[in-house]
Amino acid sequence: MVIIGFAVASDARLRTLVSEIAPWVKSMREQLAEVDAFRREGRRGTVFVNLALSAHGMRKLGLRAPPDAAFAAGMKERSDAFLRDPPVAAWELPYRQNFDAVVVIGAATRTAANRRARSVRRLLNDDEVIVVERGHEIAQTINGRRTAVEHFGFADGISQPVYIDDGSPPGLGWGDHAPLSTILVREAPEDATEATYGSFMVFRKLEQDTAAFAAHEALIASRLAASPGSQLDPGALLVGRHRNGTPLATSPTQSPPLQTTPSTTSPIQPEIDAPSSRTSGK
Fold first, then answer.
1. Does residue 185 have a pLDDT over 50?
2. How far does the chain reach from its first CA to its final CA, in angstroms?
3. How would DSSP label each residue in 87-155?
4. Contacts for 245-252 with beta carbons within 8 Å, 24 or more apart?
5. Taken in order 237, 238, 242, 243, is the CA torsion positive or negative?
6. Given a cut of 60, is residue 262 above it in pLDDT?
7. pLDDT greater at residue 158 or residue 222
């Protein structure tokens, strides 16, 4: 996955970029059809591209932003009182700026994602690019299957909400269906002849302290060891599910250990592109 955040000097320039990127943006209908084809036939989909405008970018284009106070204010204005983030002055330099838009690119292979990212990048001037983030899948073998995991080693992407009934079985121990109104927001005025809908996207860069998590997990494990016969999984007690994805509610005892598969992939390794410098962080 590649994420490119940018800001431009004028509304005309932003309109030009939106019109140039728009042909690559995949519709929801196309995405759902490709997901279905992958499930039935194992056929990989085409490159996914999404373009998200900030409230700042929408105002620059003369568009009326959705009536949402949090979106209109932006994350920086809510970082102290509500989100309890560090002071903006302590953020990485690129994120202290105002973004006009973010392009999200995903593909089945890193090569395909990078190829499309280069195409988008060529449209932008160096001083318009705020940040380029690259994320790589972390994989482990769980119950004999290659499975994507998050940074703490737990199976990822297993509890995605279902907004359109596709006939898939319900989740184990939870209701995974939700109305489309949960994620869609009406964009056009109420008196418009044709309604259009969009969805909010949250773009936050967070540090995950895996060492602290491991320390807490070890502490709980030591306390459980003091209870004869205990088979509770300390990690599952913290997360609510075992590392193989089994919910704690349906299986409170320890799950089978993971078989770790060596992988060439790595956690997110961001690359910061700035007009006069290029650095990498973690």
1. yes
2. 16
3. PGGGS-GGGGSPPSEEEEEE-SSHHHHHHHHHHHHHHS-GGGEEEEEE---EEEEETTEEEEE-TTS-B
4. 245/142, 245/147, 245/154, 245/155, 245/158, 246/172, 247/172, 247/173, 247/174, 249/173, 250/172, 250/173
5. negative
6. no
7. 222
Give the other-Cβ count within 10 Å of 135's Cβ.
Answer: 16
- Segment 8-33 shows an average pLDDT of 94
- Find out whether 12 and 60 touch, Cβ atoms under 8 Å: no
Point out the least confidently predicted range of 142-151, 212-221, 231-240.
142-151
For 37, 123, 282, the CA distances from 265, given in Å and listed in that order, are 25, 28, 15
Alpha-carbon dihedral of residues 217, 222, 224, 228, nearest 10 degrees? 150
State the chain's mean pLDDT as an integer: 82
Cβ atoms of 139 and 147 closer than 8 Å: yes
Segment 135-144 shows an average pLDDT of 80
- Cα-to-chain-centroid distance, residue 274: 23
Helices marked H in the chain: 11-21, 28-41, 55-60, 69-73, 110-123, 210-225, 234-239
Q: Are 8 and 128 in contact (CB under 8 A)?
A: yes
CB 163 within 8 A of CB 179: yes
Q: Which amino acid is at 109?
A: T
The answer to whether the beta carbons of residues 253 and 231 sit under 8 Å apart is yes
The pLDDT assigned to 95 comes to: 93
- Residue 100: predicted pLDDT: 97
Q: What is the pLDDT of residue 135?
A: 86
Q: Which residue's structure tokens are 């039935």?
A: 40
Question: Tokens representing 121?
Answer: 């990048």
